[in-house]
Amino acid sequence: MTSPRMRYPDEVVTRAKAEFDLVGAIGAHTRLKKAGALMSGRCPNPAHRDRGASFVMNPSSNLYHCYSTGCELNERWFSPVDWMMHFCGAADFNEAMEMLGGKRESLSAPVRQKMSDEAKARQAARDEEAKKSAAKSQLKARQIFAAGVSAKGTIAETYMVEGRDLAGFNVDVPCLRFTADLPYWEEVEKDVFRIVHSGPAMLAAFQDRCGHFSAVHMTWLLPDGSGKAVIEALIDGKAEKLPAKKIRGPFLGCSIRLTPPAPTMYVGEGIETVGEITRLGKAGWVAGTLGNLTGRFHPDAPRTPHPDDALRLLPALVPDWSSLRMHVPAECSKEILIADGDTKDLASLRAYLDMTTRRIRYEGRSAGQLWPDGRQDLNDYGRQVRKADTAEHCKAMNESVHRPAEASSSNGESIQGGAGND
Question: pTM for the whole thing?
Answer without folding.
Answer: 0.78
